[in-house]
Structures are given as structure tokens and as C-alpha cells.
Amino acid sequence: MDRMHAGAPSAPRNVIDREGMLPPISALRAFLFSAQYRSFSKAADELGMTQSGVSRAIKSIEELAGATLFERTGHGLILTEQGRVYLDDVQTIVDELGAATLRLSTFADADETLSIATLPSLGGRWLAPRIRRFMAQYPRIEVRITAQIGHFDLANSGIDGVIHYGNDVWPDSLSEFLMDEVTVPACSPELLPADPAPIDALLRELTLIQHLHRPTAWRDWFRIAGLAHPHPMAGPRFEQYIMGIEAALSGMGAIMMPPFMMLSELRDKRLALLDRTVVQSPWGYHFIYPKSRRSKPALMRFRRWLRHEAKRTWGETQLLLDESGG
Predict the structure, then answer these.
(1) 0.70 exceeded by the pTM?
(2) Whole-angstrom Cα distance, residue 296 to residue 115?
(3) 271, 188 in Cβ contact below 8 A?
(4) Per-10-residue mean pLDDT, the chain, length 326
(5) For the chain, where are the alpha helices, taking DSSP H only?
(6) Cα–Cα dist 199/274, whole Å
(7) Same topology for domains 11-108 and 180-282+318-323, yes or no?
(8) Fold designation for 180-282+318-323
(9) Cα(122)–Cα(128) distance, integer angstroms
């Protein structure tokens, strides 16, 4: 046995069989640029080759595949039907090769990778605008963020941690409390009457935008505020907070929303708080991570940073409520 190859994994049979059908990357690039410019000479200028070199590269692919890629006309090159199909395939493959190389360079550049799952609206409205602070603090940690709803098999998912709303009971996992969830009513300032009106009268005139997974939010708010509404659970229902925010911005009606989810809209006065009475959810936001990953340095750094950001957000929320009238 050849000692250099002893114990080395062998290539799959189909890879070996097809190796003879692989043209050089230089030939594929010559084909792509020729198709783009419909000219061997322009492709040669772009690639720093001679026109005859580009022509030979195209010819080598045609001979390898037994197919004609271009028709040569007095007005330039025209892709054949076979050439058009091949162009789509080659462009996809070259793009994927470039992306794979970029991923490889990122791996080489990073000390660790970190995969975090979060609720879609929380990820888009809260985490994404703040994650740059973590990246600035830890530039050699590559962060990947995906969206997840509800419980899943975290230990076998490849995810290092999940920002979860609900209870903190996950199998074989550890939990870090981040913050409570409180909701307040808001709407577009354009819906506010010129003359101040009682909040209950105003809300009876407005459409109540509902949350699909918090169906009693408005009913609970009216009860806590000591106000009455004939149909507190009626109105269009949206699954994600971000959908409700966009609906409110459009002037559809009033929403019940955690203030931190709409901080920028409230500060820019694109949304207005209708009242400072809050409804506190029985659940909160938690950071959940598998016990098996608790010694991963990048995860522990993210955990500490996340706690700090949650504390900062809670402070911003309280300040906003204190400053707002109602």
C-alpha cells in the first residue's frame, strides 16, 4: 500500500468518473466573459489574454463536451441553445465557488463562530441594530443569526444559543433571564384628533391591531386601565410584531406593543404613545444555550454582552415611559 495514502479517505466514485469532464477555471471564465461581451476580443481584454487564447479556451470546452457554445456572426457571438443552458449552470457554479471561498476566508480570519437563533421580529427590530456593538468589541468572532419560532431540539441543532420569549424550561439547557415584556398602546400621530379626547373614546373609534399569539392583549389592557370597549379582541391579526408596527405606521389603527420594539418610531414621532398604562406579560425574554456549550468562550462573551444590552434596553424603555404623557 502507498504509505502516503494509507488511511486517507477515498474520493467518491462519481467524482473520479467526472474529473475528466472538468474544464479549467480559466476556460470557464473565458466562456463567461465571451457570453457577456459577445466578443472574444473584449473578453480577452478583460481577462488579460490574447483573442486566440480565449478562442482556444472556448474550443477546449466545446471539444470536451461535444457541443457548440457560440454561433460566430458578423455582428458578434450568439449563444446557441446549448450555450445558454451551459451559461446558467456555469454562472451558478462560479458564484457558489466564490461564496465558498469567501466563507473559507472568513473562517480563517475568525477565532470562533457563533450561531444564534432568535424570534424574527426580535432579531430584526432589536438584535440586528445592536449586534454591531458586539462585533466591534469582539471582531474575531463570526456571528450567524437565524430566525426560529417556538421550542426546537437545541442540543442537536448546531445552534449555540437562542433568544426566546416564554418560559425558560428547555431540555439539557441553561437559561439566562434578559428582561420582562410589557406592552403599551400606540398609533400614528395622524390618527390623533386635533382636540384631546378621552383615551377610551379615541380607541373606540380606532381599529385595534391584534397580535396572533397574544389574542387577549387589548382586552387585558382595557381591564388594567379600568376602561371599557365593546369589542377589545376584534381587529386584524398579525403573527409578527414587525407586521403590526408597519400596519400602525400606515395608519391602520392602534397597536399594543413592547416599547423597545418601536423605540425609533416613538423617538422620531412616527408613532405616538396613547397611554402609559402597561400590561406585563407573565413570560419574559431568556437566553437559552445547551449545557454542552457552556465552556465555549465566544458564547459566554455573547451571553454577558446580551445581558448588558437587555439591561440597557429596559432602562431606555423606562425612560421613554417616564418622559411620555398620558
Answers:
(1) no
(2) 12
(3) yes
(4) 40 45 87 91 90 92 91 87 90 78 55 88 91 92 88 82 86 89 94 86 94 92 94 93 94 94 90 92 90 89 93 86 65
(5) 13-18, 25-37, 40-47, 51-65, 81-109, 120-122, 128-137, 199-205, 217-225, 241-249, 263-267, 297-323
(6) 7
(7) no
(8) D-Maltodextrin-Binding Protein; domain 2 (3.40.190)
(9) 8
